[in-house]
Amino acid sequence: MIIIYEGDLYRVASVKHLTPGNKRGFMQTKLKNLRTGLGTENKFRSEDRVERATLETRSMQYLYEDGDLHTFMDTESYEQTSLPAEDVGEILSFLLPDHIVQIEFFDGKPVGISPPPSVDLEVVETEPSMKGATASASYKPAKLETGITIHVPPFVQVGDRVRVDPSEGKYLERVK
């Protein structure tokens, strides 16, 4: 959820309801300022009011990288938007051209990006498998075509395509 608090946009990272003893309850929150990127913690009492930001979510296709800028195209209007690498964040390690992501807009400006639920990437470098290795054995590092290294089961070889969860950076399965 994204809220407007003290005139800025904040993404709510976590919420915990606390009721200390015989005192009034409050919500302990962790917030991230979308303009500055700084995190903060705040307590909201029941009488505090915050406004929920109304966001427009658009499906956008990742096109290309130009220096520090990454260009995305709206899949409906074909309008292009360029974002700096720091705004795209860690998701960039899992994106190849033509991948579809969800970008959130507030007042016509991009404020957040959501990765696809999974991406299929090719393994370009990993240790050879050992005879008798099974999926229950320990995982080994594998470098993917985007340059990121994840842990995969021992049976995954160079040239295999693997499905990865970009939000956690974890191996899901081998794909054909």
In words, what does this structure look like?
The two termini are 36 Å apart. The longest helix is centred in the middle third of the chain and has 4 residues. The protein has one helix and 15 strands, in the order E-E-E-E-E-E-E-E-H-E-E-E-E-E-E-E. Strand 2 and strand 3 form a beta hairpin. The protein is mainly beta. The chain has three domains: 51 residues, SH3 type barrels; 59 residues, OB fold (Dihydrolipoamide Acetyltransferase, E2P), CATH 2.40.50.140; 57 residues, OB fold (Dihydrolipoamide Acetyltransferase, E2P) (Beta Barrel). A five-stranded antiparallel sheet has the order 4-3-2-1-5, with no helix packed on it.
Task: Tell me how many strands there are.
Answer: 15
CATH architecture of the largest domain: Beta Barrel
Largest sheet: 5 strands, antiparallel
Write down the CATH topology of the largest domain: OB fold (Dihydrolipoamide Acetyltransferase, E2P)
Classified in CATH, the superfamily of the largest domain is Nucleic acid-binding proteins
Straight-line N-to-C gap: 36 Å
| Global shape | flat
| Order of strands across the main sheet | 4-3-2-1-5
